[in-house]
């Protein structure tokens, strides 16, 4: 109740201050600048617009206050919930900018994240397949993903993990990846880290554009939009349609094992994605602004997987079912909306934001096709529905030379529903509905001593109506060695991940199996730390560093099963412990003003602490190299090399009938991608790219081929 009171108090204070600010603005209209002032509060003081706010280490450029929120790539917003230099906090992080996304022509969020240190991304097939993100060897559902301040982990999924499958990068202006436990600021699901996505903000003149792209696997993509500003109003609206048709995801050895005919060997997947991305803002006064963001996604995915081929094989042998031609069909409608009000008071000494967000997802899954006799299959879809309402407030007090103090509160209301009819002979109708509430409060102190020792420390309390109350914390110091360009970073903290509503309350019963939730599940817990060093040389043109990390996890939630009288029952228990440790290293070199080299390497050791076995889908080695070159004005070239070593996984076929999660091992993969674009004039840009140039055939995960050699090209029209 106290935290809810804090939320109401914060909103009341914002409204009172807003009324005063608006009255002052009316009395003195010349004080309104028509610019967004959020970005101007980068420093611990409130400087004049576009003035340097931090001198930084020797040889580095000062952070500039910017009204466009297009922060430099050495400024982080999410690490401490306000803009600051990335080297002034001990958090290990990676920042991806809109320019990098466009230069590399990465059209999906999956493709961008797969190339970042500390992450392993697996996707069941091509574009649109279920995507899991593993960070530092932790489970995929232990990574919190946020979009414009709204938490978007998928409450309709079994584990509550974020699925990047249908997220395209159009409109994304910035992606910040925070590695290590972040629950001290971000609560549940931030046990392994946070991926914070921000939509690009419009600024300047009205700038419309159209992009058309086509290529391999029946790809035909169109994007149109406009961004800019008019007086106090700024906007960015982008609409996209992506289509892929004809990609066959089943490896040849599986097709041979199940005796696939020619039609089965060429039966492909089809994905159709329509998205809208919107960001609007209005600067009411010089120190008060309103914002609204929205991302709407509608997708229609048809897949033909190894498990569908297996159904057809055993049906022909007469073991079970009557399946002649089978596919899986998934439709999804998702909406993410958030509104904010931001107020800066007392000359920038007190900065506060209140937000209200809503997310909903409606997903249906069924198997389509025909029977052995050619009749249509009559399976009822399984429906998964979820919604989340979030209200949050935080305020930051600038204490000048004594640092700053951040306090905040959040409240979430989550709902879940899963249901199915009973038209198929093998199914029994079911419906499961549940909800939960979480109220949280947090505080953080941040300061520095003589611009040598920087640090932040936070603590958070979460109260959940289903799985209890948890306290988490984090400290993240950074030491700057004067006149050397050397920064020593470290962090330590705790994290937790709560069970999903499905894991708590699932109740699906059929004629041959049952899935039942466990309402007594406890949250997973983690203690983690890391230490690293970063070095700057050659007048800020060469950056390199390395970080050692270690995590210890207990109360891991795992699926458990029992088998009796030909009937299987599946549920969940807190049964496992795990230990993960490894190294992340990077090197960034700006060889010329027009030539950049970037590489990163990740070594991961992730084991079940009870059995000593390697954890599923955690490769030990990962290497990524990227270079960007602009040889002449208007021409941009980019190349990327990605290597990922093999990892343990669940086999699709096994002569010994071992179907444990680590009985199989994939062979890893190595890919080369190239991209080029040329701006013919101010209106027309042409581009092309080649993915997986060497046509490597690889599975990630086992049983799901990833696209081979593919080429794409198109043009962009700007005004």
From TrEMBL:
InterPro entries per UniProt: Beta-barrel_TonB, Beta-barrel_TonB_sf, Plug_dom, Plug_dom_sf, TonB-dep_rcpt-like
Keyword Membrane among UniProt keywords: yes
TonB-dependent receptor-like beta-barrel domain span: 253-693
Stored Gene3D superfamilies: TonB-dependent receptor, beta-barrel domain, TonB-dependent receptor, plug domain
Coiled-coil region: none
Membrane as UniProt keyword: yes
Membrane topology, as annotated: Multi-pass membrane protein
GO CC, one annotated term: cell outer membrane
Primary localization: membrane
Signal peptide (from-to): 1-23
Localization terms from the record: Cell outer membrane
GO biological process, one term: siderophore transmembrane transport
The TonB-dependent receptor plug domain, residue ranges: 88-194
Alphabetized UniProt keyword annotations: Cell outer membrane, Membrane, Receptor, Signal, TonB box, Transmembrane, Transmembrane beta strand, Transport
GO molecular function, one term: siderophore uptake transmembrane transporter activity
Family of the protein in this entry: Belongs to the TonB-dependent receptor family.
Protein name (database record): TonB-dependent ferrichrome siderophore receptor
Organism: Acetobacter pasteurianus NBRC 3278
